[in-house]
Amino acid sequence: MTKTKKKVLILLIIATLIAVIPLLTLKGAEFGGSDDAGSKVVAEITGTEYEPWFTPVMENWIGGELPGEIESLLFCLQTGIGVGVIAFFMGRFVERNKIENHKNKSK
């Protein structure tokens, strides 16, 4: 087996372990968002139930709460747009660097 194949095999095993170990060790764990945790802390500090100051814009448009799948979709879309913008500017900076280095070498 070549060195590259060994590395790929080891990385695949590590990736599989990263995916499987949490499934086996976190049975029955409850996962909540930061909004839920923040609401609980505010309720503990003030002694009253937390009341939001406003309703989300999308909820006003559709007249109710968004389904979880739609929230996840919008979050992923927002993440993708953000990554695209960051990658665009990183690419611009890299290309600018290459052009400037090429100009400096040709002088």
Automatic annotation (TrEMBL):
It is found in: Cell membrane. GO terms for cellular component: plasma membrane. Pathway: Cofactor biosynthesis; adenosylcobalamin biosynthesis. Pfam families: CbiN. The keyword Ribonucleoprotein does not apply. Keywords: Cell membrane, Cobalamin biosynthesis, Cobalt, Cobalt transport, Ion transport, Membrane, Transmembrane, Transmembrane helix, Transport. The chain crosses the membrane at residues 72-94. InterPro entries: CbiN. The keyword Transcription regulation does not apply. It is a multi-pass membrane protein. GO terms for molecular function: cobalt ion transmembrane transporter activity. One of its GO terms (biological process) is cobalamin biosynthetic process. Forms an energy-coupling factor (ECF) transporter complex composed of an ATP-binding protein (A component, CbiO), a transmembrane protein (T component, CbiQ) and 2 possible substrate-capture proteins (S components, CbiM and CbiN) of unknown stoichimetry. HAMAP family: CbiN. Belongs to the CbiN family. Part of the energy-coupling factor (ECF) transporter complex CbiMNOQ involved in cobalt import. This is Cobalt transport protein CbiN. The gene is cbiN.
